[in-house]
Predict the structure.
Amino acid sequence: MDLRMQDARAFVAGASSGLGRAIARQLLMEGCRVAICSRTADRIESARDWLLRETGCPPHHVLALTCDVTQESSVLEALAAAAGHFGGLDLVVTNAGGPRTGQIDDLSAEDWRGGIELNLMSTINLCRAALSHLRAARRQERHASILMISSLSAKQPIMSLYLSNVARAGVQGFAKSLSEELGAEGITVNSILPGYTRTDRLSHLSESLNERTGRSIEDIEAGWAANSALKRIGTEDEFAAAATFLLSPRAGFITGQALVVDGGAVKSLL
Ligand SMILES: NC(=O)c1ccc[n+]([C@@H]2O[C@H](COP(=O)([O-])OP(=O)(O)OC[C@H]3O[C@@H](n4cnc5c(N)ncnc54)[C@H](OP(=O)(O)O)[C@@H]3O)[C@@H](O)[C@H]2O)c1
């Protein structure tokens, strides 16, 4: 299927590694021009070089920006720089790293504030800053869409990840509200909920659980795989394919939806 994304202009946050970088790669392969951001200049520049090697796209199709998505001013600057470079923005992917692990006795008030800033406020910051650009795209009758990277913890809380369980629930409420409001303007808003997917974050999670529980990393990861219907951990590319479709004009009648990409790990009916 032709996703009809040639020349779309995208901004992908948290894209120096993992799921964000994989989405950027897939968008470039579909012919989009893509701005990527993360907090660290050397990591985001390495990601740009990797994307250029992987996709063979022209250098001016990838813009690497340093931006901390928890900082409103940093987000405003990055989106303005991306829109300036590409002449506008059509697609925005909200994303950041995952919060620290822990249950009720493990987390301080500061940890709670940090988790909410990282995974909820960053999403809100990015969407607020993106709106003027997406509205400008719609005035030119271009397809405009927001995709929020959330987590399967929004559907089925993970006991070792209280911060994620709470912040992602907020993201889902925000996504549904925003989709309802922006629908009349023709801007689609969806979220995508990854299950256990092979990235740096997954390694960090299994190492952290290994330290807390003494279980081996192999045993922890085998447990995650066993809990899914497909009995394995997902790949970045599988996740990026679903994300890219949701951003494309071919998903133009899909909005307000939360797509779980988890190999069947969530056990609820709906
Ligand atoms: N992988 C999974 O199995 C899985 C499952 C469920 C949910 N998730 C969630 O999906 C999201 C992405 O996960 P991932 O596996 O791709 O993680 P990852 O490999 O750790 O990548 C996270 C990316 O976000 C960037 N980042 C972190 N904090 C940032 C900030 N404040 N501002 C801007 N960029 C920031 C990091 O780059 P810098 O360090 O250079 O800033 C990196 O590029 C996370 O929220 C994670 O919790 C992942």
